Structure formats: structure tokens, C-alpha cells
């Protein structure tokens, strides 16, 4: 039976009791508005652990605009129902005053500039908010494994860096992006798109597929110019489209064996991101 827990002390007691019995704890931090992408992560966590904890917390610190924070979709009853159907053991609703205490904030460490490019450049301070809340949640939940979707590739890279630099006792598991039948990456923000906008947003997966098909066959600048033009000619407003190094996240000027294409664009008022692994042929 799924338990709903709001207090960190009660959560800690639950987790410690499970660990004393030799059980492993899988953890999925979310901001709610759950969709099939979240549920795919939940299923993997359940397969790999004895106990599964999902947190739901809309973290104001990682939003750059108050309006975006207010408009973020919230439906606690629906989210809990979905997680109950998946057999999740605990749904954790942390309280802000219990998260951002001095002892929960991470000590200073360097992200080596990973937080300053792509999403970090477009949304200053975003990853500081992400690191703060995830670090606090790790301390609250004390998971064996924590699961994150690769749609937010930069976030996964930064959190791996945090885990390594702070020597945190958690195994971070990256889960492939889940897509709709038409190829659109599943996102809670998709709920804010009209049917017409959802069709318009398909230019993102079409452009990423173009890059994957032609990577290593067309000079890099020409390839990126064609891809950017493709989005500029659509109703979407392009924020960035880059091909980056998988580890440093630095934009590439020349082809290397493996790279990542990353895109961010506004579809109406909704900002969407996506990425795709590229392998030179």
C-alpha cells in the first residue's frame, strides 16, 4: 500500500527500517504533473529495488520566472493515484522549511562550468536551484539509487558531478527519454500545449533526426546552419541548437565519434528541450 509522507522524520524512520532489513531504496525526484515518462522511470526503479520512493515538489528555486512557476501544472490527487497503480511504496511531499536548511545545502564545490552553458546560459541560477533541492532530497531519502531522465541530459551530467565531488553514497541512474508515438519527448510542460502547438513542436524531433542522419557526412557548420534554419522556418522560436561533447558539454566545431545534439525552443509560451545522441558514420 502506498504511503503519503510529508515529514522528513517519518520518512527517515521508514527508510531506515527498510535498510535494516537489507532492502535497497530506489528514489525518483519529480515536480509532479506525472506522465508516462515518469512512470517508465518508476517501473525501472521498482524492478531494481526493494522499496521505491517518489518525491513531488515544485521547486521555485529552479524557475527563472515567477509566472512559469505559478503556471507549472499541479494535480496531487492524480499523481498519487498514478503512483499507487504503479505500486510505489512512498510518495514524499517535502516541506520547503525542512528542505533548505543550512545542514541540507551542499558545501561549495566546483561544477567546472557545466552549469554555465546551454540551459545554464539561458536560465541563470537554474542549476544552483536543482543542485540544492536534489542534495537536500538525497539527505532526506538516503536512497541506494536515484533515477533521472536523459531528456534533461545537462541536469544528469551536473548531478553526477555533484555526487562524485561530494562523495555521496548514491548510485545515479540515467533513464532514456520516453517519447510519444509521434516522437515528441514527453514532458509535463506538454500539458500546456494546444493540439496545434503539439504538432508544431514536432520540428524538434525532426531536426534532431536530421542531425543524427547527417552527422559526420556534412561539415559541422553547414549541418548546424541547415538544422537551425529548419527551426527558424517553423512557428517555434529557437533558443539554442548545439552539438556538444558528452562530458564537458562544450559546443563542438568538428566531428568526434560521439556527441549530443541539444535543442531548446519556445512553442507559443512553453519552452521545450530535447536532445539526441549522434554517432559519426
How many beta-strand elements?
9
Protein structure class = alpha/beta
Number of helices: 11
The rounded distance between the terminal residues' Cα atoms is 50 Å
What general form does the structure show? globular
Beta content comes to: 15-25%
Strand arrangement in the largest pleated sheet: 1-4-3-2-5-6
Helix content: 25-40%
Q: In angstroms, what is the radius of gyration?
A: 19 Å
- Which regions are unreliable across 5 or more consecutive residues at pLDDT < 50? none
> In sequence order, what are the helices and strands, one letter per element?
EHEHEHHEHHHEHEHHHEEE
- Average pLDDT works out at 96
Major β-sheet profile: 6 strands, parallel
Written description of the protein model:
The structure is a single chain. With 281 residues, this protein is an alpha/beta fold. It is 40% helix and 20% strand. The strands form two sheets. A six-stranded parallel sheet has the order 1-4-3-2-5-6, sandwiched between helices. A three-stranded antiparallel sheet has the order 7-8-9. The chain is globular.
Write a concise keyword list for the protein shown above:
11 helices, globular, 3-stranded antiparallel sheet
Amino acid at each position: 500500500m502506498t504511503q503519503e509522507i510529508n515529514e522528513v522524520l517519518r520518512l527517515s524512520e521508514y527508510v531506515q527500517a527498510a535498510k535494516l532489513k537489507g532492502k535497497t531504496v530506489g528514489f525518483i525526484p519529480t515536480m509532479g504533473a506525472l506522465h508516462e515518462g515518469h512512470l517508465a522511470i518508476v517501473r525501472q526503479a521498482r524492478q531494481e529495488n526493494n522499496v521505491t520512493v517518489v518525491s513531488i515538489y515544485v521547486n521555485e528555486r529552479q524557475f527563472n520566472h515567477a509566472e512559469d512557476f505559478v503556471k507549472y501544472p499541479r494535480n496531487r490527487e492524480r499523481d498519487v493515484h498514478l503512483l499507487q497503480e504503479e505500486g510505489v511504496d512512498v510518495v514524499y511531499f517535502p516541506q520547503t522549511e525542512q528542505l533548505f536548511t543550512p545542514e541540507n545545502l551542499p558545501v561549495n564545490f566546483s561544477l567546472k562550468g557545466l552549469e554555465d552553458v546551454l540551459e545554464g546560459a539561458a536560465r541563470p541560477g537554474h542549476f544552483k536551484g536543482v543542485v540544492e533541492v536534489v542534495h537536500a532530497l538525497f539527505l532526506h531519502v538516503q536512497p541506494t539509487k536515484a533515477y533521472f531522465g536523459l531528456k534533461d541530459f545537462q541536469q544528469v551530467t551536473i548531478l553526477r558531478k555533484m555526487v562524485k565531488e561530494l562523495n555521496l553514497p548514491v548510485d545515479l541512474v540515467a533513464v532514456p527519454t520516453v517519447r510519444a508515438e509521434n516522437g515528441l519527448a514527453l514532458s509535463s510542460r506538454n500539458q500546456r500545449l494546444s493540439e496545434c502547438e503539439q504538432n508544431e513542436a514536432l520540428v524538434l524531433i525532426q531536426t534532431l533526426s536530421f542531425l543524427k542522419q547527417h552527422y559526420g557526412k556534412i561539415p559541422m557548420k553547414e549541418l548546424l546552419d541547415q538544422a537551425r534554419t529548419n527551426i527558424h522556418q517553423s512557428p517555434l522560436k529557437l533558443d539554442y541548437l548545439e552539438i556538444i561533447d558528452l562530458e564537458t558539454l562544450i559546443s563542438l566545431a568538428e566531428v568526434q565519434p560521439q556527441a549530443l545534439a541539444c535543442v531548446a525552443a519556445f512553442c507559443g509560451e512553453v519552452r521545450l528541450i530535447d536532445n539526441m545522441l549522434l554517432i559519426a558514420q
